[in-house]
Amino acid sequence: MRYSVLLPGIFALLIISCKPAHKPVASGMDGIAEKYVKLVLEIGLYDKYYIDAYHGPDEWKPEEISEDKAKNFPSEELRQKAEELLTKLNAIRPAELDEMEKYRHSFLYAHVAAALGNIERLAGVKMTFEDESKIFYGATAPKADVEFLRSEIKEMLTSLPGQGTAAERLESLRSPFIIPSEKLDTIMQVAVEECRRRTALSIDLPEHESIEIELVSNQPWGAYNWYKGNAHSLIQLNTDRPSTMDYMVNYLSHEVYPGHHLHLSLMDLDFAQERGWVEFTVSPLYAPLSFIAEGIAEVGGSIIFTEAERTQFEKEVLFPIAGLDTNGYSYYKAIQKQLSKSTTYLRLEISRAYFDGKLTREQATEQLMNDLSYTNQRANQALDFVDAYGSYIINYSTGEDLLHQYINRKVQGTYTPQKAWEVFEQILRTPVIASDLQE
Ligand SMILES: [Zn+2]
User: Fold this and answer.
1) pLDDT in tens, 294-313
2) Contact yes or no for 429/438 (Cβ under 8 A)
3) In angstroms, what is the span from residue 107 Cα to ligand 1's centroid?
4) How far, in Å, is the centroid of ligand 1 from the Cα of 222?
5) Whole-prediction pTM value?
6) What spacing in Å lies between the alpha carbon of 13 and ligand 1's midpoint?
7) Where are the domains of the chain?
8) Ligand 1 midpoint to CA 393 (Å)
9) pLDDT digit string, tens, across residues 330-357
10) Dist CA 37 CA 24 (whole Å)
11) pLDDT more than 90, % of the chain
12) For position 397, what pLDDT does the model report?
């Protein structure tokens, strides 16, 4: 679906020419940022997943290379480029920078260091899950007690009503709420409009922002936001696993409002277009920004909706469209909520062990099926995700936990959606990395 578009190109030019330009800084960061963007684009030639989005100048894009050339990764040359940038950044004295430039400086430093880490990865250096997440995302997932999680989940699953295995009983609770495929498109449009409306109550959305939604299949992820520049995103929903009613608002608040689409649009408009900070025209996937972006996307939905408001919206608006009965829905959601944290942490530990080679593919599949009651297809999808994206999975749970902790600290125990939003918006509008939010 598409929202009204107000000549985005012209609008962007107006922003640049009408607003007073920010005071130019003689720190040399603009030049470093341009070289960083070009370096990231060059690395992207050798890894199809690396670049999540690029909306900078076309002429900065390197020429495509042949398959043969792509096999010879120029690690030495790229390593040297990254190290030169780190040396230049090290020579800048943060004390001479204003507050936003300080954030920019540490953001750039962390991103060049992560790019160097990716050069090492593509050069064949094998990192552990822990090292990789530290280098790429600037954070690590605390190790969970696997045995404790396993028995906790087992206890919850055993208490499920019905007949058959835990997986079958879970499926029979879930199946009445699967959205009929012919209703999926309408449900998504209505749900995204509600996420947009609620987000717009707290923030002036960019006037010309727009999205398109597309249904796809055969992907290692559930949904994806492809930011195209000028506050426009393409949102894809993977239909491999039929979505249930409770997932729709989750997906859309994560990918669109107030998650990825809003976040990336604001970074583009506030930083890249208004300040001329070109590093915000590229989003490498394995980078500190992903940690913050996933944290924002995970937390955002719980700020624009309280749990009761969300369930009410689902029951009163979405269920009639889907032609489904709400009977048993609140119980199903309570079970999901109960299970969600423990299963997320246990899935992370299985992913960690699989990535580190402590579990074979067969063993990891078995654990996902036995411990989490995943179907074989879902277990394989979870492991495909690790094969494709390594330790990226920490960005969801650890990113969410860090953002929640930060927001709770900032509101000093007096949590209201409005106060939470104020902190949330400040994060959206500041180029932070994980260390800026840690205690
Ligand atoms: Zn995401």
Assistant:
1) 999 999 999 999 999 999 99
2) no
3) 20
4) 9
5) 0.90
6) 29
7) 26-137, 146-437
8) 10
9) 999 999 998 999 999 999 999 999 999 9
10) 20
11) 81
12) 94
